[in-house]
Amino acid sequence: MEDESWQKLVEELCEGKPRALARLISRVESRTPGWQQAMKALYPRTGKARIIGITGSPGAGKSSLVSRLAAGFVERGRRVGVIAVDPSSPFSGGALLGDRLRMRELATTPDVYIRSMATRGSLGGLAQGTRDVSRVLDAAGYDLVLIETVGVGQDEIEIVKAADVVALVCVPGQGDSVQALKAGVMEIADLFVVNKADREGADQVVADIRGMLALAGDDRGDLERVFSTNALTGQGLDALTDALSVRVEGLPLAPDRAGERVRDELLTLVERGIARRLRARLVGDGRLEAAVEQIRTRQSDPYTLAESLLADLASLEAESHD
Ligand SMILES: Nc1nc2c(ncn2[C@@H]2O[C@H](COP(=O)(O)OP(=O)(O)OP(=O)(O)O)[C@@H](O)[C@H]2O)c(=O)[nH]1
Ligand SMILES: [Mg+2]
Q1: Would the CB of 129 count as within 6 Å of ligand 1?
Q2: What is the reported pTM?
Q3: Band of residue 108 on the pLDDT scale cut at 50, 70, 90
Q4: Which of 167, 274, 297, 320 makes the best surface tag, with the fewest CB within 10 Å?
């Protein structure tokens, strides 16, 4: 690696220094120049960690569950990294601080590392960002990574697609849980967690989900897929942790799914690279502004100019540097 400070960080990370871990993650997340070299150096040390995505609507109890799951996995001998993806606030959102307080107790053990990721701080795309941060944790010896993400937007779906196992958290009294199932999350969820089981209607939500799975003919073996929990008391958490353990231990993934994932990542990295270069070039030489002006004054139209700007792709191919 060319950059000494990066090299030092990577070495310190491998020696298990927490400061290096925090710094590396920040730098990789913010795409500080040289981040690719760091990832290249780390990559051979990765591949051991399993990734669990926990998603669900705001306030469903994801953080509460994640805290309990992290504790449960530590008891089962794992080292756990937690990535909380904050969908709205840039760096120190209130909700996240709340999560952190709740998790503070956990965070003091060396076997748990908790990190928040801000959507707007993620220049390389949120899904790639979480993937990279997971790898840094992996290289640092965290063999299980829990990723908490809110909601069911495209970004979130991309994030959880990169997870090995996905749990969708639903709650009773929130008509949107079943709505979310219809919105395409069902296909990517391995497990369904009906949290706040202390609330009225929890059994009905469990039954609804079971019904939907049956209706969809979505059968993934004999393993139980629907769980009900109370994250406040811990009820149902053992069963959930065991079920997640079983799935995580049953990995690696089938070759087709693993291949699809690598394909997704590679394409994303290439696409982002092309987009970045194209943008830099079009903005840099004024062609973008010239085109904007032509469209604005109606001398031309967006379709024609998009086509002619796209022709720049050909000249990009000849370019060797980033
Ligand atoms: N009654 C009840 N309340 C719960 C349960 N689990 C979590 N809560 C409460 O629900 C609220 C939201 O919990 P969080 O764990 O922050 O939920 P979250 O899904 O992480 O929320 P966001 O990250 O803001 O989307 C908190 O006040 C929790 O104490 C549960 O099983 N039962
Ligand atoms: Mg949360």
Answers
A1: no
A2: 0.84
A3: low
A4: 320
